[in-house]
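Study this pair:
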Amino acid sequence: MPYRAHARKRPEPEDVVRVISPAFDADFYRAVYDDLPADMSPLWHYRLTGWREGRDPAPWFSVTHYLELNPDLKSSGWEPLHHYLSLGRLEGREVRPSDWAARYFAAEAWAPRPWSFKGFGAAPARAAAQPAIPLTAQEAAVAAEFDAAFYLAANPDIARSGTDPLRHFLDTGWLEGRDPTPRFSIRDYLELHPDVAGSGLNPFAHFLISGRAEGRSARHDLGFRYDVLTRLTAPEARIAAAAKASADARLDPPALLEAALAHVRDLHLTFSHDDYIEHSGGLQQCLRREQQKVVSLGLDHLHLFPVAPWPAVRAPDEPGPLGVLLNGRRLGAFQPQTVRAAIARAAPSGRRSFAVHSLLGHEPDTTADIVEALGATGGFFWLHDFASLCSGFHLQRNDLEDCGAPPPGSAACAVCAYGPTRARHLDAHARLFARLDLTVVAPSQTTLDFWAAHGDLPAKRTRVLPHARLSAPRPAAKGPKHRPFRLAYLGMPQPLKGWPIFRELAATFAGDPRYEFLHLGGRPDPGAYAEFHEVMVTPDRPRAMQETLAALEADAALIWPLCRETFSFTAYEAAAAGAAVVTGPDSGNVAAFAADPKRGRVLPGEAALFHAFATGEVLALGRGARKAKLYDIDYSGMTGDLLAKAPPARAS
């Protein structure tokens, strides 16, 4: 008996549409069901009521026959075509053509072709090219204001397919929640106007023909924080998903790990939340540099990380296979006890050291067991974030605003999504600190001071070691005197990093000749009024952001994270490139860095930011007005720098 996956929670409507829309045949549906209202989308009608009425979505698929052949589905509430495409075909379930198929093909002059079920049934080919379907009045209204360039940029899958963007939006795109212009939100409009949601009408068409004249809003004005809140997934649900993914992970033979470690003598062991070779980011850059440094000291570098990403520490009864890297080479995935045994069998007389960069996805007692098998007498615990204070390691109450790490069990925790999992998180870190001799290392004094004031973990010692320093100052080249002020955003367009604030600022002053807006990162936002430059910091190009920013002669960089940054590479990259750092008061080390007038400006809030641009006050941060300088960036070797000053002890 195949596994009946329909017993799972049914998917969201948007997910259903995404799965069935490529297989849905709108021409067939219109032709055989002539009672369909002229202004209603066939796909919308089928999804809401059609399938329940026994109407077929394509010539190759009969709803009635599929339900008859699979009686276990009749009471499940699953739409049959979606069930077949996502699960049924994998379970070997049978499908039969629609009873309307033969009549439809004869009427439409289709040439016969054998059926194909690669993914879903392929419709027979037309005998001759068909004339384009004329636009209805609704479609013509949409076409007049549809932004094809935006649509293709926002939906690269449509761009790759070669599909006409307008036709796609009219047929299925709006049903999938894809927006037609940067200033209109399908999701918001349907939420704001439930009468439109229940009508089956294309919401953008409704807005253009009548909604705008009625004073209806094209999108809500609740701001990006409302969107963040509505998309917040409970930590408990994320933990459950991580546990399932971990339990399903494929493990490698223990002999592979034992053979790799058999000849290792001097060993430095690190823990973090992911594979620093496969993923990119600030912490991953730090681990790459640590690897390079410890290898230069003559040690091998062994790195352990959870094979599935976890949003919290792991409990003893939760599965926790570990991915293993040796000097940046992937060895495989193994159970923690396998890792512990292999480390214990390695040469017992070599030098030993360890550093915990993140405990996310690790179980503290298992981690301590592995360290004890290593034979190290003491190690380092890095404050890359504030995970040792809360499971919400950015200290963002409901991912919206800084919480200041209130006392556990306080009323502030009671209204936060991370409140229920905070105790579990704090207890796990306390157990780790109780078992190991840990020196806490912070990348900034600001971070260490905050951590010490809001936690009580028994660190043996504390250190401050910045991830980077500015050096070798020199005057920046003087650009043209009469060009616009250039403000840049650095990195991926993420709410946590302040992208919505930059995006709104750019939209507000898009027509102001005093300003230009630049986005340097790995992925554009097609709706942003900013000139995009693709920039990715990689091991081969560690200074890519700094060099591009300097070449563009940006006057300032908006580094406005919603959370307390423990360090911020982008702040240093901006300053090194001659750009002033503009930030808010709750940005942690960014605010401490930008408080120096030679480096930037700390504004009291978002209102002050927009006021500075409206009045032109921000122009005082121009490169010429500041007599900007360029710098080199000297990057830290992380724990390797600490080991160079105090070599690791030999295993006892």
In short: The radius of gyration is 29 Å.
